[in-house]
Amino acid sequence: MSDRTPRDQLVKYLTDAHSIEEQALAQLRVAPDIAGDGLLADVLAEHLPETESHERAVRDRLETLGGSPSTVKDVVMAAGGKGFILFAHSQADTPGKLLAHAYSYEHLELAAYRLLAIVADRAGDTETMSLANDIAEEERLMGERLAACYDEAADDAIARVDPGGVESALTSYLADAHALEQQAITLLGRGATTAGDPAFVEVYERHLEESHEHATAVERRLGAHDSGPSTLKDAAMRLGGLNWSAFFQAHPDTPGKLAAFAYAFEHLEIAGYELLARVAAHAGDEHTRDLCMDILTQERAAAGAIAGTFERAADVSLAETTAPRV
Question: Are 129 and 188 found together in one domain?
Answer without folding.
Answer: no
